[in-house]
Amino acid sequence: MRKSSLLGIILLSSLCICNSGCSRTSGISGQMKNPGDPSLPTYDKQVVIENSRLASYITISDLRSVLIGGLIKANVTISSLAHDTLPLQYKFRWFDINGMEVSPDSTAWQPVILYGKDQKVVQGVAPNVGVKEFKILFRDREE
Question: Is the model's pLDDT at 129 over the cut of 90?
Answer without folding.
Answer: yes
